[in-house]
Amino acid sequence: MKLRYQRVSYISTVAAGRQLERMLDYLMDASRNTALNAAGEWRPPVDVFQMDDELTVLIELAGMAEDDIEVVLFDDVLVVKGERKPTIDAERELTYYEAGVRYGEFRVEVFLPLKVEVDRVEASYQNGFLRIGLPRQTSSLQNTVVLDNTHD
Q1: Is the entire prediction scored with pTM above 0.70?
Q2: Of these four, 3, 25, 79, 111, which has the most CB atoms within 10 Å of its CB?
Q3: How many separate domains does the chain show?
Q4: Is 54 helix (H, G, I), strand (E, B) or coil?
């Protein structure tokens, strides 16, 4: 799993407009858990909750290898992306009677409601669930640390 933090020092008008559009799409799309976005990416089920001084993001990613998941933190936006590949032999012709499992590229964007300590962010993947712990920032100073924990 790749965990990366990038600090964005400025946001252009176009990028700010896109971010606002994504936020509005997220709020207005009642079927966002299974719908495909404009890029053809699906969105897995996500829980975001706070316990004590830590924000937790829990994402259901059953059937994936840890190396196929990328986690990126941009200031106040957490992005998780990757690709779930089919486990069925694609060479054979299949007759589906029900098809509810999404395959292909996925993307999750979580707009963080609070500032976090980027050097203490932890991610683990177990039993098909990705759990990301984001400790709440306690100091009044902004973090300026750039964290690049890319694991190959």
Answers
A1: no
A2: 3
A3: 1
A4: strand
Structure tokens at 73: 């933190």
Those residues whose C-beta lies under 8 Å from the C-beta of residue 51, and which sit 6 or more positions away, are none
Q: What distance, in Å, lies between the first and last C-alpha atoms of the chain? A: 8
> Which residue range forms the structural domain that includes residue 145?
2-149
Other residues' Cβ atoms within 10 Å of the Cβ of residue 55: 20
- Give the pLDDT confidence of 113-150 residue by residue, as tens digits: 999 999 999 999 999 999 999 999 886 554 444 445 45
On whether the CB atoms of residues 131 and 71 are closer than 8 A, the answer is: no
Structure tokens at 147: 């964290």
Q: Are 83 and 144 in contact (CB under 8 A)?
A: no
- CB neighbours of 53 closer than 8 A, spacing ≥ 6? 135, 136, 138
Q: What residues have CB less than 8 Å from 11, skipping those under 6 apart?
A: 19
131 by Cβ neighbours in 10 Å (0-12 / 13-18 / 19+) ranks as middle
Task: Map residue 122 onto helix, strand or coil.
Answer: strand
The closest alpha carbon to 45, from 10, 90, 80, 73, belongs to 80
